[in-house]
Design brief:
This protein has about 325 residues and is of the alpha+beta class. The chain has 2 domains: about 5-205, Orthogonal Bundle (Endonuclease III, domain 1), CATH 1.10.340; about 230-325, Nucleoside Triphosphate Pyrophosphohydrolase (Alpha-Beta Complex), CATH 3.90.79.10. It contains 13 helices and 6 strands. The protein has helices at about 5-15, 25-35, 40-55, 60-65, 65-75, 80-95, 105, 115-125, 135-145, 155-170, 175-190, 305-310, 315-325; strands at about 230-235, 240-245, 260-265, 270-275, 280-290, 300-305. The strands form 2 sheets. The chain has a 4-stranded mixed sheet, covered by helices on one side. Helix 1 (about 5-15) packs across helix 11, helix 2 crosses helix 3 (about 40-55) and helix 9 (about 135-145) packs across helix 11 (about 175-190). It is globular and about 70 Å long.
Length: about 325
């Protein structure tokens, strides 16, 4: 059997039943692909279901208030994804009369949609001959083809894309199934830890299965160490209200609220500690419950505690601290 035959046979026998696979709605596929970035499928599914119930189509999302949208996203992290979904929905309404276009190039004009997401929507929703290549697919193809160079290059992407499009077209496969099968194989079988190739449909066709690259491919250059910054967080509450901040001068998580936070650590023992990791930096947080603040800011203001639950989206790091201290 060919590469495509083995891949699709495996997929039809082993694919997971996921809520966004039961239909071809491009909006729902778009939302699912954005949510799945940087987030495990099991984690994002409850968020996806709540999101689709609240915003079932592009028009509903476009008309929503951005604070409400960010509140719905709370807990998923990487909030730029939510903002871009909101902007993207507004763009579709304003430029495409609310209809998501059946064209990869036009899809890439939508805010927040790049090469990968446009290919995913084009192939899965519209069955256009495109292939979405993410980290899972890169791992599958690097092992299959014994690709020893860095997979994080444009040259690598082009090489895999050309191979996969040729396989797709010469076998007349459904692009929707083909794309999802590649993603699913990387997620369920060809994982970083499975170097014994257990459950792989390719067997002797694959270089890793033949033992040529076990444990060495894909090659991903080591990331540079990220800087860590000491932060002090103040918690001022009278049990019904809490002091929060809308200071975004550090350029992080604009549109989300946070607790009053300053640079450095105090000498006193903190009530809670937390290391919060962003993709490009870490916060080493010491949190203190205090009656008053040693300084003031125009960006700090009081809100009812219930608002942090109902209406005010708060950054994950500070919400974790409040939950850890049983304040929320």
């Amino acid at each position: 059997m060919t590469f495509t035959d083995r891949l699709l046979n495996w997929y039809h026998e082993n694919k997971r039943e996921l809520p966004f696979r039961s239909q071809k709605d491009p909006y729902k596929i778009w939302v699912s692909e954005i949510m799945a970035q940087q987030t495990q499928i099991a984690t994002m599914i409850p968020y996806y279901n709540r999101w689709i119930e609240k915003y079932p189509d592009v028009q509903t999302l476009a008309q929503a208030d951005i604070d409400e949208v960010l509140k719905m996203w709370e807990g998923l992290g990487y909030y730029r994804r939510a903002r871009n979904l909101h902007k993207g929905a507004q763009y579709v309404v304003e430029n495409f009369d609310g209809v998501i276009p059946r064209d990869k190039k036009l899809l890439m004009d939508i805010p927040g949609i790049g090469d990968y997401t446009s290919s995913a929507i084009a192939s899965i929703a519209f069955s256009l001959p495109e292939v979405a290549i993410d980290g899972n697919v890169k791992r599958v193809m690097a092992r299959y083809l014994n690709y020893t160079e860095s997979v994080n290059t444009r040259a690598c992407h082009k090489y895999f894309e050309e191979f996969l499009k040729e396989e797709l077209l010469k076998n007349g496969a459904d692009p929707s199934d083909f794309t999802q099968a590649l993603m699913e194989l990387g997620a369920l079988v060809c994982t970083p830890s499975n170097t014994q190739c257990i459950g792989c449909p390719f067997k002797e066709m694959c270089a890793c299965y033949r033992g040529e690259c076990v444990g060495t491919i894909p090659y991903i250059p080591k990331a540079k160490p990220v800087p860590s910054y000491d932060k002090t967080v103040y918690i001022v509450t009278d049990k019904t209200r809490i002091l929060i901040s809308n200071d975004h001068s550090d350029g992080l998580m604009e549109g989300l609220f946070r607790l009053p936070q300053v640079e450095g650590h105090l000498d006193d023992k903190p009530n809670a500690k937390l290391v919060h990791k962003f993709s490009h930096l870490h916060w080493n947080i010491h949190a203190y419950i205090v009656d008053s603040l040693p300084e003031t800011s125009d960006d700090w203001f009081w809100v009812p505690l219930q608002d942090l639950i109902d209406t005010h989206p708060m950054i994950t790091a500070h919400k974790k601290i409040l939950k850890k201290l049983d304040i929320l």
